[in-house]
Design a protein that fits this description.
108 residues; mainly alpha; 6 helices
Length: 108
């Protein structure tokens, strides 16, 4: 898979997670908790976790908008995303199956 295809897949996964948080705003607490855990344990991506923390501190909407933004900064941030865990395993598996089926190249 190309780097751009990986970015698009991550963007699409984050779009699903953001939709879920918008339907259930209490899930934003999970984003906050996950990022706090990342800040304490992930030194290699601390710069991203600190940026996510700035967005979280600014409120849910700025954070949710950045999570689904199609920009280089947002793509970089999604590499250390506190939205991990918002989608349950079944939702994630269904998405990945659908993604693979709709992006398969026909064999000749």
């Amino acid at each position: 898979m190309t780097p751009r295809a990986l970015e698009l897949r991550s963007l699409a996964l984050h779009s699903l997670a953001v939709e879920k948080v918008r339907r259930d705003p209490a899930l934003f607490d999970r984003v906050r908790t996950t990022n706090a855990r990342f800040l304490n344990m992930r030194r290699d991506s601390a710069v991203y976790s600190r940026r996510w923390q700035d967005l979280i501190d600014a409120g849910s909407e700025p954070c949710l908008r950045k999570a689904v933004e199609d920009s280089e900064e947002a793509a970089d941030l999604r590499q250390a995303s506190p939205f991990a865990g918002i989608l349950n395993e079944e939702e994630r598996r269904d998405f990945l199956r659908h993604w693979a089926q709709t992006r398969e190249t026909p064999r000749t």
